[in-house]
Amino acid sequence: MRGVGTAAAAIGLALAIALPFFLKPYGIYLLSLWAVTTIAALGLNLTLGYAGQISLAQGAFVGIGAYATALLTKSGLPFPAAFAVSGGLAFAIGWGLGYPALRVQHHYLAFVTLAFSTLVFLVLRNEEWLTNGIYGINGIPRPALFGWSAASAPAFYFFALAMLVLLAAVEWWLLRSPWGRAFVALRENPVRALSLGVDTRRYTLMAFAIGSAFGGLSGALYAPLVQFIDPNSFALGLSLNLLLMVIVGGSGIFLGPFVGAAIAVLLPEWLRFTEGYYLMVYAVLVMVLMAFCPSGIVGMCRLALEAAARRHAGPAPQASAHGGGEA
Amino acid sequence: MASFIQLLVSGLATGSIYALVAVGFTLLWQTSQTINFAQGEFVMLPAFFVLAAMNFAGLPFWAAALVGIAASVAVLGVLFKRVIVDPMLRHGVLPLVISTIALSLFLKESAKDFYSSQAQRFPSLVGAHDLDVFGAVVSTQSLVVIAVAVVTVVALHLLLHGTRLGHAMQATAQNPTVARILGIPVERMILYTFVVNAVLVAVASILISPIYLAKFTNGETLGLAAFIAAIVGGFNQVRGAILGGIILGVLDNLSAAYVSSQYRGAFPLLLLIAVILLRPQGLLGRSEERLV
Prior knowledge:
The complex is a heterodimer.
Chain A: H1 2-18, H2 25-50, H3 58-74, H4 79-101, H5 106-126, H6 128-131, E1 137-138, E2 144-145, E3 148-149, H7 153-176, H8 178-188, H9 190-195, H10 200-226, E4 228-229, H11 236-249, H12 256-270, H13 278-292, H14 296-313
Helix pairs in contact in A: 2-7, 2-10, 2-11, 2-12, 3-4, 3-5, 3-10, 4-10, 7-8, 8-10, 11-12, 11-14
Chain B: H1 2-32, H2 39-55, H3 61-89, H4 93-115, E1 130-133, E2 136-139, H5 140-162, H6 164-174, H7 176-181, H8 186-212, H9 218-233, H10 238-258, H11 266-278
Helix pairs in contact in B: 1-5, 1-6, 1-8, 1-9, 1-10, 2-3, 2-4, 2-8, 2-9, 3-4, 3-8, 5-6, 5-8, 6-8, 9-10, 9-11
């Protein structure tokens, strides 16, 4: 199964590198949006898919990162510094929110994060001295690194793609470290993990804070991509959308967020013929998927592949009971 | 003082509407572990049923209101249970949460695309008169809202505590396995809870729409208010949800007037965070056994 996942990732990466040479600027913009969104979804997958905590605040962390980067780069700080500050800030706020909030879990955490996300929106809208309120911030500069400028659309796309690959590698490494194993242990059986000496609260908090940092980094790239941000972009809708992406792709599966984000970014384009109804179609698709395959699209593919492999090999031993986030 | 009484009465009116919505929310949670993220949209939608019945079928308001409640029972009660909840229950809580989030999106878009994206005027139960109570101006509309909410809650209380059916529903909520052994048709009792929820949201919809107008985005704030009310009062208690709703409505009105109207929306959220941290089971709730 692992071979299939690696092959899919390799084909995906090759496509992601080759595609912009065949696309118009709008297509390249969509690809960039996909790369940036995927980073946030990767972070949420860590919180939701691996540590098993429902967070409805990922959009707020994207907003925090986006505003931090926009304000810092406009005041003249170089992009790498702003990028690091955005990630660090989201990590710190995630830690600060998670520390008390993770006393309660699951649906309670969903409501705390829901409240947090609304609070962030109110602050972004009302604190005009800092955020310029509903008028938003425009003219956010594109990053320039060591004399190389990512001002053109393809250059920015490759920059965002590089960041995506880098952060995906970080998450991949993290999941293979003892930390990552502990995350999965938490989700699968928290009581057992606790009795085996895993400090559940500390690890859950860590997963939540790192997931939030990914959200902040995604925002740091989103701001220079669109070059104009306002509070509405980071309202609750974004958090819900990111949650849907992770679930639709397949939560707890490494490749899930890539697929989920691609669907969420591209579906409005594919469903353009339905005009105003695309959100309704999207909502129905999500409900149907949940009813028939709650492990998402990648999970569905994996089940199909496993079934096919079993048919080939005859009655095989139950290899990996749940796959534990390999793929 | 006069303005305080005024704010208190309108706060109680909004609060009693929140309470109705929150009661439905906790009922669904108790009997079927359904966390309905579309509850706010459930309140938004019946107003459009009523408007459709008035404008397309030409019914008078009272008949349209009955049609609205009936349509709500059929769509938001029975259909919701059969089509969305039943196939999902075996997958656990999370997929159902996601599904109701998608459903909320669907209902919002449906109301926008099939009715109108503009806020619609909605007839009120009584004409707008102002009464003079100890120098404060109190609108009859607020009083009627409070009265209808009280009657609804009393009726629900009588149903749950005074009838055989109500006892069976309570047994189902408390321990479905034992209820089944005792011969209670658990499945049907769960369905009845969904029907009760549908009636509650329809009543709330008819009460709130004259104040806020009927608009497809109404569900967002109402849903959040219902969650907060349910958690503040106690997730597993009907009377907790009532208390939570009323606290929330009053807090909302008073804080907007006396502290900051810009951050009006923030006070209920701060209350929510405080309650979750200090008393996660809610003001009136029993703490549930949780290992971690």
